[in-house]
Amino acid sequence: MNKRERRMIRNSCLAAVPLLFLSGAAEAITLYEEKGTTLDFSGSIRLMFENAKKTDAGQNSTHIKDESSRFGIGISHQIDSDLRGFGYLEFGNDTQSAENKFKLGNRQAYVGLARRSLGDIAIGRVLSPFDKVARSDYTYEYGGVLDFGDRYIGRSTGSSDDGKNDFIGRVSNSVRMMSAEFAGFSAGATYTLQNGDEVNEINNAYTLAAFFRQANLRLAAGYGAAEGNGERAKKPQNYMDSKERVKAIKEEIWGIGAEYTLADLDLSLAVDYGRLRIKNGNQRSGDAYKKVNGTPKAELLGLGANWDWGRGNLYGGYYRKAGNHDANNWREQRYVIGADYELTKKVVTWVELAHEDQRADQYDKVTDRLLGLGLRIYF
């Protein structure tokens, strides 16, 4: 969830988050409303200038980038006073891609039922409740730690940016349940059926998340686990003359998040902490598969602060990922400072500066400096 979306729902019930369509839907355009049926259209165009400087390699480049621009259509029909049916379709694209490489991405697509007194259930391509656990990321582009990303220690489930296998974010072929809020508590879960036939695609994935809010305090905790198709997958080419099957990698993550707002100062402070573990199986390397030795693990830490001064915010964060010996002692730490300003509720500009260090046993240290200047138009 990005910063603006988070600000819009900060004081709303977490159980209602899936029904806000997560795309600026608090300000969605209502296309149709009659006899208990509402059809909404929402989305945003998100572009940024980015200057990236790799101080170790002497590289310096500036580009215009797309930040996951998207649009969505949501429908809701009131069945009775307490029961409602809903559905949502959301698509996105890299708007800066070449004409012959344009591809509309399927971000979310689900239908479900919601009972005000209990919660909701949805099936399809959904957003996991685990995505709401992190609290320390106040940034638009460069923050966050509990997603752990696609660059980390050869994840079994593919790239977090390919829109297919990130089981703690958006995931297809899934069932999601989210409770209503009771005395400040709410909880949610997802279960993902087998997602594809390739070895690196997931099978039997699930997530659990719980939330609590009281006055200016927000607490959250989540757990997720998945395994590759492994034994159920076809033999890869390099095993064509062998009876050996590819073993399934098992991956799990847990995380906790806490945020406290000093109302008199309009200042919010937050912390996230989690652990990632990958065990057993084989890891894909090109067209081949190699055995994973040991149990790669990572410690994940995020610290964030945000000062809301009305039309804008000043914010910062520190994010650290630290792998163990089996993860080649991989380290990444990033410092981010930034500010945003609302020209109107639908037009927001922001600027961020990030400094990042990465190192591992088999690689030289890499230092990056990232400067981003972005503009978002919501509709």
Report Rg: 21 Å
Measured by DSSP, the beta-strand proportion falls in over 45%
Overall strand count: 20
**What is the 3D shape?**
globular
Superfamily (CATH H level) name: Porin
Identify the CATH architecture: Beta Barrel
Mean pLDDT: 82
**Helix-strand topology string:** HEEEEEEEEEEEEEEEEEEEE
CATH class: Mainly Beta
Main location: membrane
Protein name: Porin
Pfam families: Porin_4
Subcellular location: Cell outer membrane
Which features characterize this protein?
58% strand, 379 residues, mainly beta, Porin, Gram-neg_bact_OMP, signal, 16-stranded antiparallel β-barrel, Porin_dom_sf
Task: Show the helix and strand layout.
Layout: H1 3-9, E1 29-34, E2 37-54, E3 59-66, E4 69-78, E5 83-93, E6 105-115, E7 119-127, E8 170-179, E9 185-192, E10 202-214, E11 217-228, E12 250-262, E13 267-279, E14 282-285, E15 288-291, E16 297-308, E17 312-323, E18 331-344, E19 347-360, E20 363-378
Antiparallel strand pairs: 1-2, 2-3, 2-4, 2-20, 4-5, 5-6, 6-7, 7-8, 8-9, 9-10, 10-11, 11-12, 12-13, 13-16, 14-15, 16-17, 17-18, 18-19, 19-20
